[in-house]
Amino acid sequence: KNEVEQSPQNLTAQEGEFITINCSYSVGISALHWLQQHPGGGIVSLFMLSSGKKKHGRLIATINIQEKHSSLHITASHPRDSAVYICAGGYNKLIFGAGTRLAVHP
Amino acid sequence: SAVISQKPSRDICQRGTSLTIQCQVDSQVTMMFWYRQQPGQSLTLIATANQGSEATYESGFVIDKFPISRPNLTFSTLTVSNMSPEDSSIYLCSVASRGLETQYFGPGTRLLVL
Prior knowledge:
The complex is a heterodimer of chains A (106) and B (114). Chain A is mainly beta and 106 residues long. Chain A has no helices and eleven strands. Chain A has strands at 4-7, 10-14, 19-25, 32-37, 43-49, 53-56, 59-64, 69-74, 83-89, 95-96, 100-105. Chain A is globular. Chain B is mainly β and 114 residues long. Chain B has strands at residues 4-7, 10-13, 19-25, 31-37, 43-49, 56-57, 68-72, 75-80, 89-96, 104-105, 109-113. The chains are: A mainly beta (106), B mainly beta (114).
């Protein structure tokens, strides 16, 4: 069965801290998405990874295919980064992790 | 990239009624998907909307409850039929296509069934 697991479930940080969210996935998943969901419900796609590392602004996503593990890093965190971050496995038909609720305090 | 709009953005409905949600994308895309996010839960795929043919439903979802149309490559509708309070969720459409680096999500429709 294809599964995606995230940790931690909840994360609180002070503004400026470096943040890491982790995602493990099972055999059969060959691509990993990182998504951001704000309180209104809208979802923004941050990255899709099948290998290596991607960077966009203060966000960095890495994936280790051998270990079936991906991480999302946020450098110099800011209160506007507060959201739920979701990893999802697959290319098109996605399998979602439970999400990590991040709160960044000033 | 792809820009997706959904209508309505939210609605409050009575038990036993039906609601049709529209999804419009600004470019022709190969694949369109409908997801449900129940309160406090992560997203679950309902079905893949296929252009010109019946949608492909995931386990636990049936056409009679969630009929889907996709008349062309830029538009799809999802109907939530004979609603009950358990159908209260956010419903999201998403699109993917060759040439798009990732999957794009609509803003969601927040449904409350009383």
